[in-house]
Amino acid sequence: MINRRIIFMICLSITLCLLYTTFAYSAPCNYVIAGHVIDGDTFESDRGKRVRLLGIDTPETSDPRRDVQWFGKEAANKLKALIDNKKVCLKMDRDKSINKDKYGRYLRYVWLGQKFINAEMIEKGYAFVYIYQPFQYMDKFRRLEREAGKNRWGLWNSNARKKWIRQKHKEEQISLTCGRDGTVCPERSKKYIGKSITVRFFVRKSKDIGNMIFLNSENNYKGNKNFTTVIFRKDALQFPENPSEIFLNKTVDVSGTVLLHKGRPRIIVTSPDQIKITDRQNKG
After folding, report:
1. Residues designated catalytic
2. d(Cα 31, Cα 40) in Å, to the nearest integer?
């Protein structure tokens, strides 16, 4: 009799677990079109809502307080390749108290058909697991993260990271040669409004908003010392690759007429001839 009760309780527990798992997976979707990808873990929907992928964290690319971090652009590009302009399914965690973060972004699991985007970002080495409180897929994400780290995929590739850091440092050192070779430093460019000059600066931030690409000398583009290069989409097509990728973390020489926009200097580039990565020999 006791054995029958034990067997019954085990079967009941298994059945309830299966029902719970099925319910969690089959929770209704909130379908949206993924719009602008802000970085590797955040995007805007076609309804203007900001969505943060629940349970993951990717290196920063848009924080005005920080430089673009190692593998940040790669993570943002990966998310964009996966969901940009596609109809995706948003699901809440089974803990309904997990809804928004302190910035008002919706915390969601993102699905594209049968592809679990949050898990994909971790599995391929584009994201870390981010645990601020226990969540539904926490153990699964941890397993995927351990596997990615073990295989040194993506952001876990320590050798590539060291090389990236060295290269960035070299480029920053080259930018210190601004003022030589007939160039002007970015913070002094405001003195040349309406004049044609060449500005030498380290591209600390780049942003592609669709119709325009911005290359900035400072992390905070609203800063008083920031200098911006603007490239319109039609002109960007003349470059072999997206200028926001080519010139990020590089020191460049940009030539053209300095304009003032909202109190900050900028040069509009309409031809690849106006911008070049500074010759390493100039680092003197």
Report:
1. 52, 60, 105
2. 20
- In words, the CATH class of domain 174-283 is mainly beta
Let me know if the fold of 26-156 is the same as that of 174-283.
yes
Asked whether the beta carbons of 71 and 154 are under 8 A apart, the reply is: yes
Contacts of 253 (CB under 8 A, 6+ apart): 183, 198, 199, 200, 275, 276, 278
Please write the tens of the pLDDT for every residue from 123-174. Answer: 999 999 999 899 999 999 999 999 999 999 999 999 999 999 999 999 999 9
The CATH code of domain 26-156 reads: 2.40.50.90
Q: 55-92, pLDDT tens digit by residue?
A: 999 999 989 999 999 999 999 999 999 999 999 999 99
Residues 227, 217 contacting (CB under 8 angstroms) = yes
